[in-house]
Amino acid sequence: MRRWWVAKVKRTWAYARARVSSAEGDELATWLTPAQLALFDRMHVADRRHGLGVLASLRSGGATDPELLVAGLLHDCGKSPRVRLVHRVAWSLGQRYGEWIWRASSHMPTFRYGLDRLRRHADRSAELAAEAGCSSRTVELIRRQENPIDEAGQLLRAADEAN
Fold first, then answer.
1. N or C terminus: which one in the chain shows less Cβ crowding within 10 Å?
2. Rama region for 135: left / alpha / beta (φ>0; ψ in -120 to 50; rest)
């Protein structure tokens, strides 16, 4: 249990200090389409930072498949900038200690929206990626991020969990 808490505190710290430099955005502009870059830019800064971390993990593991790399970068684009740290904390606690936490917190302002976005983020992210012109394979990698069906999906999930 201690390891779970340590990991969550590290994620919270990363969320609070997340930054994306203009140089990182400029580098993405060299290989993303304008629609994909716009989708990335609309993400919460913590989700952009996380996506860049997933991308870096995939690349450091030897991944070069552009569809997988785009999926790694955009897999959380459906969370919405309106999903805040308090929603994410409630979500994690509910995953760990039970859905009663979600039911209790859903009565507070904005929590119903935030928890719903987190619950549905994989499907919503896949829809947004499709609208941004991502390949059907990238869309499916994003949609199946929590239950991968192939090796690329397993790589995405491992990189996601490592970041």
1. N
2. beta
Give the residue-averaged pLDDT of 124-136. Answer: 98
In the prediction, which pLDDT does 141 show? 98
Name the amino acid, one letter, at 47.
D
Q: Which residue has the tokens 């829809």?
A: 127
pLDDT tens digits, 13-72: 888 889 999 999 899 999 999 999 999 999 999 999 999 999 999 999 999 999 999 999
Contact 139, 130 (CB under 8 A): yes
Distance of CA 73 to the CA centre of its chain: 8
CA distances, 72 to each of 44, 68, 113, 125 (Å): 15, 6, 24, 11
Residue that is written with structure tokens 């999903």 in the block: 83
Q: Which two tokens stand for residue 112?
A: 């119903």
The C-alpha atoms of residue 78 and residue 94 are separated, in whole angstroms, by: 20
- Residue 6 tokens read as 């340590």
Sign of CA dihedral 25, 26, 31, 36: positive
